Every structure is written in C-alpha cells, then in structure tokens.
C-alpha cells in the first residue's frame, strides 16, 4: 500500500516527491485481449501512469440495466500488473469524442440543459450510477494496494457551466462512496474556465497542446501553491467525417512535451494510444467558435495521431517522446513489446445473404408508434442507429416542396417506395416536389451525439416536423433500429440472396440493407476491413462491432483487432444504409 498526497508544490508518494508521467489509454477503445500489449507500450515510452475515462452510457445503456461494469476493475488490475499507476476520470460527463460525452441519452433526453447541474433528477441518476461503478475503483486505490492515485471530478466543466454547487455535490458523492484518493478537476488554461470548473480544496489541472509556460502562469494565478500538471497534453487530434486527417509534427510535439517537463510539471499525454470507437460509439462536434455551427461527426478511428497508433505500433512521435521521457527515468527504459501478429494474407469477403432494411427493422427493431408529431430517438429509446418515419401526403393535391424541420442528422427518403434523395440539417428539402396522395418514408440516422459545448445532449431524429409546402404532416408512424439489437445476432433476419445474384426478385446490386457473408482467414491477426464502393453503414465481424464506415473519408478502412478473428471461417455483417454502386468490388480483409 502507498500513500499518494498532494503537497504545496509536488505530488508525494510515501512522502517523497514524484512526477507523474502519464498517458491516456481508454480501455473501452482497445480490445481487452490487447490491453497488456498497449500498457507495455506506454511503459516502453517512458510513462509511469495511465489515465482513462469511464463512459456511463456504454455501461448503463438503459436505466438500471448494466453492461460489463467489471471491465473497469479488470483494466485497473491490468494496469497494476504492468507496473503502472492509474488516474481515473469517471465523469459523469467525459467528452472524449464519445457519443453524448458519455452521458446516457435516456438521461439527457428527459433533462436537456438541466443535465450537468444540481438538478435533483440528474444527481439521482448520477448517484445510482456511481454506487454501481465505484466498487470497481475504490478497492483499487493506492492506499489499498492498487494502482489508482487520483480521481477526477466531472470533466472540463468550466467549458460548459458555472454551477460550483454541482461540482461540490459530485465531490461529496465520491467521498461518501469511499474514494480516498486525491480528487482533481481539469480545464482549459483560461480564467473563465478555471473559475467555472475548479473547486476549493480540490487540485486544479489544465489542458492544452502548446505554450506550457503561459498556461501554467494562468493556473498559478488561481492556485499559487499546488503541483503543476497538464492533465491533457494534446499531442495529436481527432478527425471528422468529410474532413482532413489531423497530423502534428513529431519534433514539434516533442518540443512542447519538453517545455512542460522543464516547468517542473507532471503530464498526461492525450492520447498516448487513442484506439478505436468500436460499435458506433463515436461522438460529434458542432463547428464554429461557439460550437453552435454545423454538425461535424467524428470518425470511427481514434488514432489521434498518437505516439502509439491505432494498430498499437510505435510511430516517429513515440520515438521522439521516448527520447524526452528517458531523461526523467530512474533507469533504462524497457524495450517495446513484440508487435501483435498481423493477418497472414489478404482475404476476400464473400457476401451470401441480403435483407432489405424493412426486413431488418421487422426482425430487430422496436415496436412501431403512431403519434401526431414525429418522436425523437430519445422518445423511442434509440441510442445508436436509425429510425424509419412514415407520413402520408393527403391527396389529391399538386406537387409541393417537402421539408424536414429540425432534422438530426441525415435522412434517406423514399416516396411511394422510390428513392427520392438524402436530406441533412443544412439541406432539409427534397430536390423534387411531392404530389399527393403519397407515402413518404424517411430513414433517419444519428451520426453521433454532440460530445462538447452548449449543444451537448441535443435530441436526435426529426425534432421539428415534416412540412408539405407550409403544412405539417401529422400522424407519424415511427420505428427504431438500435445498434444494440445486433448484440444478440441476426438469426431472426429473413436473409435472401444478395442482390444481383438472384433472379431479379429483389433490388439491384448495392441496395441498402443488411449483407451477411464470410471471410476465410489464414493466419489470424490484426487486420483492416476495406469496403470499396460502399457508401455508409456499419460493419461487424463475428458479432464484434467494428464501427461506422463512410465513403466521405478521410477514414478508408476499419480496424479489425486480431482477437476478434479466428482461423478459418469468420462471419461478416454489413448494414449498408444508402444505395451503393452496382459494380462495387468485394469487401476484403488486409494485413496491417
């Protein structure tokens, strides 16, 4: 057992000054079979600590229904076995470019802006969650023989709110549930963020990517006597769909890291290893200076241009950082562990079955509702996935423009069964007017809930209504398909032949729907799934959700961790949400 305390200028471990050289690694973005390899990579880079968030929505997808909360404890055990300390950031809000910033949509859907405040209903939910989560953390604190040195209160709250009483309530809840480790907050190095997000008597840390001396000078104005720590040194950045891949020069990033350490500060590399937002859990941002602009969905890869890349490989940034960190090590650094096995040879995915979206929805979707006004995803209990809305245009009537108000985020529209276009929040009107009578179906997708800024927690789906000319179309039939439904497999789905391989009884090749196939693997190991010619959807291998794919780029393939694959036959599912080209090449697995 060790005593970790916060002194006036240093962190103290059993009374001796210690500098935390930490790296962020999210257990939920790394396959459990690869935790130990990634932790060994962090040690080899020169780190003595690892930091992780805990996403509430992943572990409590519905009220009182918990999913593998024990993964938190297993990860912390692996951290200790790797010879590392741990920093835990349990939220309840985490940002992390994760769906809804880690908050369950069943919480934010009913509370709106009252989330992340002292609202009694919100705190009731948080208290219930913490009482389930904290038994995984409390016994693994350093003063009980475990690796956990510090626990965070909320996350970057000064970038969102100013309810100091809310932070105090969270700190008291953590203490009441047995957290004895030092608590801390983390915020941007700006006065309004530090005044809104810090808490008297709790260590304040700052997050930045450069200009360490200026950042720490700002922190010193607020906390003249406390250890300095950059809790998030942004050594890379994340990507958006239809954007550019973010890259930071390794030498420049290493220079910024050196400046932090020259200030006598501790540091947490964000990210040391980013990993992957498997299962469609990637979040989204709003553009513009005030984060109120167009939606910018995050890609599936969370590579982050980190020193350890998405596949667990050391990069040039790893080598540069290792050189800097070696100067602060007590002895020689361990060598990096052997790289995990890569796929032995490229392999083609043979698609053998197809079911239209209507059939998939009938087999795996929720119950249909009929309401005067279109329900949101939150109304239907849909976290990740899509909703089919159906409305009737009365007739006879002449053609008028059809518009969706408050569309979040993207709708593929069919009029009397024929494809009519794709609508977005920025372009919510069909290109061709619609005459009545007609049946209109809108398959609306969530592209990821906002994880940062004032629009966090905003609802998904049709949040305003469907207009024909200026008239609302009432009487909406809605049915949702949550990605969680695929966790139980697709045995109930009525598969037929793949379009183009049958006698013409189903639509042509490339039709939207669920494709099932197999891929034969020789030499199972890390791989990437390429889907040339596909437009937009989700992929699974052996029931493991690889995440969203999208021809918009910049991401061009999906990471398939080696532990997911097996020698011989492997089952592949592709949920294609928009008509693809009829001559698209076959999907394939490639070595990494």
From TrEMBL:
<dbReference type="Pfam" id="PF21467">
    <property type="entry name" value="BetaGal_gal-bd"/>
</dbReference>
<dbReference type="InterPro" id="IPR017853">
    <property type="entry name" value="GH"/>
</dbReference>
<feature type="domain" description="Glycoside hydrolase 35 catalytic">
    <location>
        <begin position="11"/>
        <end position="327"/>
    </location>
</feature>
<protein>
    <recommendedName>
        <fullName>Beta-galactosidase</fullName>
        <ecNumber>3.2.1.23</ecNumber>
    </recommendedName>
</protein>
<feature type="domain" description="Beta-galactosidase 1-like first all-beta">
    <location>
        <begin position="376"/>
        <end position="474"/>
    </location>
</feature>
<dbReference type="Pfam" id="PF01301">
    <property type="entry name" value="Glyco_hydro_35"/>
</dbReference>
<comment type="similarity">
    <text>Belongs to the glycosyl hydrolase 35 family.</text>
</comment>
<dbReference type="InterPro" id="IPR048913">
    <property type="entry name" value="BetaGal_gal-bd"/>
</dbReference>
<feature type="domain" description="Beta-galactosidase galactose-binding">
    <location>
        <begin position="514"/>
        <end position="570"/>
    </location>
</feature>
<dbReference type="InterPro" id="IPR031330">
    <property type="entry name" value="Gly_Hdrlase_35_cat"/>
</dbReference>
<dbReference type="Pfam" id="PF21317">
    <property type="entry name" value="BetaGal_ABD_1"/>
</dbReference>
<keyword id="KW-0326">Glycosidase</keyword>
<dbReference type="InterPro" id="IPR048912">
    <property type="entry name" value="BetaGal1-like_ABD1"/>
</dbReference>
<keyword id="KW-0378">Hydrolase</keyword>
<dbReference type="InterPro" id="IPR008979">
    <property type="entry name" value="Galactose-bd-like_sf"/>
</dbReference>
<dbReference type="InterPro" id="IPR026283">
    <property type="entry name" value="B-gal_1-like"/>
</dbReference>
<dbReference type="InterPro" id="IPR019801">
    <property type="entry name" value="Glyco_hydro_35_CS"/>
</dbReference>
<dbReference type="InterPro" id="IPR001944">
    <property type="entry name" value="Glycoside_Hdrlase_35"/>
</dbReference>
